[in-house]
Amino acid sequence: MSPKLPVVSGAQLIVAIRKFGYEVVRQKGSHVHLRHSSDSRRTPITIPLHDEIASGTLRRILRDSQVTVEQLIEVL
Description:
The protein is of the alpha+beta class.
């Protein structure tokens, strides 16, 4: 069983995801677009700059970025 999803803001999630090789490409409004720096086959991800990321949105971002909940908790 996987651990419980943490409650994170958009800014906290961007800092964490960047530790896995993603770089900020651009921002449009309150959405930040990131792309993996060395593996172009990975899905580009979009993170909303909200105070709290919804659990379904967070799960989708983690799935697209190939990051597990355990890995996310370690870098937070």
